[in-house]
Amino acid sequence: MQISDSSSRILAGLLEARTGQQLTMSRRWRIETALSALLRERGIATLDELITILVMGKERGLSDQVVEALLNNETYFFRDRTPFDTLAKHALPSLAVKRAAKKRLSIWSCGCSTGQETYSLAMLFADHPELWKGWSIDILGTDVSSAVIDRARSGTYSQFEVQRGLAITQTIKWFEEAGDGWRILEPLRRNLRFQVHNLLEIAPQPRNFDIVLCRNVLLYLSPEKKTLAFDRLASAMAPDGYFMLGAGETVIGQTSKLVADGQARGLYRLDGRDKGDRRTGDERRNAVRG
User: Fold this and answer.
1) Coil vs helix vs strand at 107
2) Which of 6, 148, 184, 269 would bridge with 155, disulfide CB 3.0–4.6 Å?
3) Residue 30: half-sphere exposure toward Cβ, Cα within 13 Å
C-alpha cells in the first residue's frame, strides 16, 4: 500500500498539530503499519482515500482515530530496569529522609501509555511496605492518548504484556486472572490515578511533584516544542525533586532548567537558578497581566 508525499505530509501535520509529535521522514515508514487496521475497520481502500475523507470532514471522529493510531505506545513493565533501580537506590531513600515529617510523596509518570510504567512505580513501594508504612504515595500517569489512558485505568493486560518485564512471582502477587488476561489487584491501584494530558500544556496538579518521569517521549518533538515541554515539566517539580529521561535522552543543549544529578547517573535536578520561580514564561506574563 503506497502513500503519496502530499498525503504523508498531511498526516504528519495532523499528528503534530494534535500532539506536538513529529512524524519525521525516518518514521514515516510506520504510517502503513499503524493505519492498516483502521483502514480495514472503516472499509477504506487506500491511504490516499483516507486523506480525502479527512480533508472533506465526512467521517466524524476519524481524525481522532488516525492520531491515536499514529502514536507510538511502546511500553512494558519495568522497562529497561536500570532506571527503576536508580529510583529505588538513590531517589527514594533521599526523599524518604527529606519528606519524613509529612510522609507524603507525589510522582508524575508523563507519557505513561497503557500504564505499565505507572504500575511498576507502585510496585517499588508495595514490595517494601515496612519502609512506607503510614506514607501517602500519590502516583499520576498521563498520556496524550485517551485510548491508552482508558486501558491504563482498567489495569488489565494480556499474558504477553504481563510477561514483559515481570517475574512470575510478581504476577502472582499483584494480578488476578481476568478472562484471557490479568488485572492489577485493587491494593496496588489504590494510590494511582490517570488522566489525559498533553505535556505541552500547563502541568497537572499538584504541580509540586517529588519525581517526574518523561521517558522516551521528548524524542518525537521539534526542538522548539521540546524546549516548551522541558519548561512545563520543570515547573511541575518540587524544588528538590528528581527528573528522569529515557536512557538515550539528555537535557544537554535542550534546556537550562535542569542539570544532571551529581550522585546518580540518569537523574536530573532543577538548576539552582530556577528554584525560586519555576513558572514558565507564559505563566509569569499572565500573572503580571492579572
Assistant:
1) strand
2) 184
3) 17
Q: CATH no. for residue 157? A: 3.40.50.150
pTM, rounded to two decimals: 0.87
Domain count for the chain, please give it.
2
8 A C-beta contact, residue 138 and residue 174? no
Residue at 34 is within a domain:
yes
Q: Which residues of the chain have pLDDT under 50?
A: 275-281, 283-290
Domain carrying residue 30: 5-70
Cβ(165)–Cβ(115) under 8 Å? Answer: no
Instruction: Please name which of 130, 152, 7, 141 lies closest in space to residue 70, comparing C-alpha atoms.
Output: 7
Radius of gyration of the chain (CA): 20
- Are 195 and 58 in the same domain? no
Same domain, 34 and 96: no
Cis amide bond preceding 206, omega within 30? yes
Last residue of a domain, one of 46, 70, 94: 70
User: What is the dihedral sign for C-alpha 120, 122, 125, 129?
Assistant: negative
Give the span between the Cα atoms of 193 and 36, in whole angstroms: 32
Which of 216, 264, 259, 215 minimizes the C-alpha distance to 234?
259
Return the exposure string of 78-91: e unless at least 16 CB atoms fall within 10 Å of the residue's CB, then b: bbeeebbebbeebb
Nearest to 194 by CA among 257, 244, 119: 119
Residue 147: exposed, middle, or buried by beta-carbon count in 10 A (0-12, 13-18, 19+)? middle
Q: Which of 70, 91, 123 is the last residue of a domain?
A: 70
| Interstrand relation of 237-245 and 209-214 (parallel, antiparallel or unpaired) | parallel
